[in-house]
Design brief:
By secondary structure, the protein is mostly beta strands. The chain has a single domain, classed as Rieske [2Fe-2S] iron-sulphur domain (Rieske Iron-sulfur Protein, 3-layer Sandwich). The strands form 3 sheets. A 4-stranded antiparallel sheet has the order 2-3-4-9, with no helix packed on it. A 4-stranded antiparallel sheet has the order 5-6-7-8, with no helix packed on it. A 3-stranded antiparallel sheet has the order 1-11-10, with no helix packed on it. A hairpin with a 2-residue loop joins β2 and β3.
Length: 102
């Protein structure tokens, strides 16, 4: 059964930016795309890159390690060399707090 986990305040993640959150044994990247929040594993599926430190272009994140790209919304691969999609998490925002089910 999934556990509800509080990650951060919505004010902690400005539009067009990302925040790394370590909690409950998870390393996560929280993204704000035009006021909508998305969460995926922070560690790139291709190598040691931290996606929260990557370059954001709209709803695409580019890994700073090897320049592979993923959809922030779905975790799907946008550009190689990535071969494995990123794990994403359902997000809810309540009273200015961001939560996931994991």
């Amino acid at each position: 059964m999934p556990t509800r986990i509080e990650l951060c305040s919505s004010d902690d993640v400005a539009p067009g930016s990302a925040l790394k959150v370590d909690t409950n044994g998870l390393e996560l990247a929280v993204f704000n795309v035009e006021g909508e929040f998305y969460v995926m594993d922070d560690l790139c599926s291709h190598g040691p890159g931290s996606l929260s430190e990557g370059f954001i272009d709209g709803d695409v994140i580019e890994c700073p390690f090897h320049n592979g790209q993923f959809s922030i919304v779905t975790g799907e691969i946008v550009s190689p060399p990535c071969m494995v999609p990123q794990k994403t998490y359902p997000v809810t925002v309540e009273d200015g707090k961001i939560f996931i089910e994991a």
